[in-house]
């Protein structure tokens, strides 16, 4: 195996909103050789953690393409995914005399991607947007699907838009500076694609989990590529989440309740999803859809990825209350993504008593 | 002529985002008989001027269709088209336990339509939206095109989205309570369609201008219908304003400068557009595209509609400065919509000196 994997590409096919995802080592420094949107100015939106690591490299590549390139470093953390922070992006865009062709570059993880994407969706009713995700979670998750949003005091991602980027550049070299815990959080969303869609990919992850945690470039490249492909396949069939696409939220209904119940930021999103998947698997078992061996096998891999597999003890009624606020609930009925059979997911309601039993069973 | 005109319909054809505009007398009380979106709850967003006139009628019709219907009355006026006001809509939606199928009804003029539409575009990344415009301007202009927005301290409509309603209901009876000045402001956008697209319609307006100002229902019905048809034709070819659609901004580049220069609210938007059309016509003449007789003919009709035809004396350099901030400008170059020939418009740059001469000529 050569240490530097070849450049991979995934084409996201959404008609006139189609775009490529490029995956490779050291892509950021060569960004000006890629098919960037035109525009005589650009703004790099990043955060104060990522800025000292990569903003300069990105900016140097971009000035070769756009006339003026400014950088805005937002404070780091989910708690800053607010209107106030969004407003700072608009202020800078207007101060620098931006127009409808000014390009926004999101350099960072999911928070930076979500807020920058939403800024691009709204600024002058839509300007071009390029994602340069620097976390594994953002590379496998935010790269595909066009979901952008900010939080509202009453709920996560309540205010947002479906807005596609023109290009996504996953530079695998950025994962070398990623903290261990965040790498594991990203693996949660990689593992997710196994039970809901592709058990062959699940087999591959089981074989390669140590290489992934050791950040072996070829393993990372495949994990990112295959995750994006699967997500693209699902999103391509249901861009605006009217049905099928909801299966991508496997583990998220329980996960969001964990995040909200503990207060955002205590657990990483991927950690909550990892544990949420264990709970969703337990629910699938309680509903008689999968057997306990399958649940144990999935749980073991989630654990090997370095993720928590026992939920915090918030109490079943608190979990249920929080889950009823979920955007997927309708007229107060919670809808869970369950594994109908290994490799296939579906959306289901479940009796409160059954869900409560799952919560009791899965919480430490 | 019968006093009550037949119900008119214009179909806006935008693929999966298509919707009908219904035009007629007294439609609001029969709204539940129309093809409304489903949804077990709804929110009527209106303003404190319109609420006492129509909110009750609308609510009574809607409770027959949706389980829960709340009303939120915003303060009246362009100066409230802000994030803070938008936030109030989100707060109420979340307090009432809304979901992704909750329907937003915009009951009012352009400000209510723009802000409610933007709220619908962003809330949970998009909920269904129905427009019930109660001003002539909103009926002929906001009904078609899906432009939604709020203002930013540095510029009008800077933050927004293209988002289509599922239905627009123009109840002509609401125009009976419209102040004279606002009726004239609406006529500016009706007259606009003549020089840029349809001189036969311009002839019709010349013949019927007194009937329109007297609010004769049949005349109003035709003016609203034909305006929506023309706008639909243009928007259908260019939904996201990459080219052709810009011609609908005829008079708006000068008009926005007037509004911004005097401070928003001093002149009504339609008044500024009326006067802006005179300036854009003068520019077309200076560029040798149309003759002075045509400019005089258009100016006479704008005056008969009760609109100002002389701009405020802000000084040419201030006008130019304000126009460079316009969303249509690119890399600092102002692009004007001019009349290339009677009934046909195009986008053009023009030398500052020429524009300055037009401004001097057209300002009182």
From TrEMBL, chains A, B:
Keyword Amino-acid biosynthesis on entry: yes
Enzyme class: lyase
Family annotation (Pfam families): DHQ_synthase, DHQS_C
Subcellular location: Cytoplasm
Keyword Lipid metabolism: no
Binding site for Zn(2+): 189, 252, 269
GO molecular function, one term: nucleotide binding
Catalysis performed (reactions): 7-phospho-2-dehydro-3-deoxy-D-arabino-heptonate = 3-dehydroquinate + phosphate
Domain 3-dehydroquinate synthase C-terminal: 186-329
Location of the 3-dehydroquinate synthase N-terminal domain: 72-184
Cofactor(s) needed by this chain: Co(2+); Zn(2+); NAD(+)
GO BP term, example: chorismate biosynthetic process
GO cellular component, one term: cytoplasm
EC number: 4.2.3.4
Pathway annotation: Metabolic intermediate biosynthesis; chorismate biosynthesis; chorismate from D-erythrose 4-phosphate and phosphoenolpyruvate: step 2/7
InterPro entries: Dehydroquinate_synthase (IPR050071), DHQ_synth_AroB (IPR016037), DHQ_synth_fam (IPR030963), DHQS/DOIS_N (IPR030960), DHQS_C (IPR056179)
Cofactor note: Binds 1 divalent metal cation per subunit. Can use either Co(2+) or Zn(2+).
SUPFAM superfamilies in the record: Dehydroquinate synthase-like (SSF56796)
Residues annotated for NAD(+) binding in this entry: 76-81, 110-114, 134-135, 147, 156, 174-177
Keywords: Amino-acid biosynthesis, Aromatic amino acid biosynthesis, Cobalt, Cytoplasm, Lyase, Metal-binding, NAD, Nucleotide-binding, Zinc
HAMAP family in the cross-refs: DHQ_synthase (MF_00110)
Reported function: Catalyzes the conversion of 3-deoxy-D-arabino-heptulosonate 7-phosphate (DAHP) to dehydroquinate (DHQ).
Entry similarity comment: Belongs to the sugar phosphate cyclases superfamily. Dehydroquinate synthase family.
Name used for this protein in its record: 3-dehydroquinate synthase
Record organism: Ramlibacter rhizophilus
Gene, per the UniProt record: aroB
């Amino acid at each position: 195996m050569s240490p530097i994997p070849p450049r991979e590409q995934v084409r996201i096919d959404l008609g006139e909103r189609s775009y490529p995802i490029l995956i490779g080592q050291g892509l950021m420094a060569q960004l000006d050789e890629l098919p960037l949107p035109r525009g005589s100015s650009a703004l790099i939106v990043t955060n104060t953690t990522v800025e000292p690591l990569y903003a300069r490299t990105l900016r140097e590549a971009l000035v070769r393409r756009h006339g003026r390139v400014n950088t805005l470093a937002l404070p780091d953390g989910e708690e800053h995914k607010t209107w106030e922070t969004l407003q700072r992006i608009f202020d800078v865009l207007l101060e620098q005399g931006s127009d409808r062709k000014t390009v926004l570059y999101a350099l960072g993880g999911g928070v930076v991607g979500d807020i920058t994407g939403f800024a691009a969706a709204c600024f002058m009713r839509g300007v071009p947007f390029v994602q340069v995700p620097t976390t594994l979670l953002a590379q496998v998750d935010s790269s595909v699907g066009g979901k952008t949003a900010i939080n509202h005091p009453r709920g996560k991602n309540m205010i947002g838009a479906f807005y596609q980027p023109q290009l996504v550049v996953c530079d695998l070299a950025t994962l070398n500076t990623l903290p261990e815990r965040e790498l594991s959080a990203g693996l949660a969303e990689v593992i997710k694609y196994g039970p809901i869609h592709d058990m062959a990919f699940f087999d591959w992850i089981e074989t390669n989990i140590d290489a992934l945690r050791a950040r072996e470039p070829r393993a990372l490249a495949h994990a990112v590529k295959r995750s994006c492909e699967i997500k693209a396949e699902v999103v391509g069939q249901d861009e605006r989440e009217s049905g099928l696409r909801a299966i991508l939220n496997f583990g998220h209904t329980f996960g969001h309740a964990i995040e909200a119940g503990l207060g955002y930021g205590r657990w990483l999103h991927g950690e909550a999803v990892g544990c949420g998947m264990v709970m969703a698997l337990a629910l699938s078992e309680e509903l008689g859809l999968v057997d306990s061996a399958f649940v144990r096998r999935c749980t073991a891999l989630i654990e090997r990825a370095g993720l928590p597999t026992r939920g915090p003890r918030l109490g079943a009624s608190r979990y249920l209350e929080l889950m009823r606020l979920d955007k997927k609930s309708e007229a107060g009925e919670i809808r869970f993504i369950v594994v109908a059979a290994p490799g296939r997911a579906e959306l289901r309601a479940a009796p409160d008593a059954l869900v409560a039993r799952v919560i009791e069973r899965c919480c430490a």
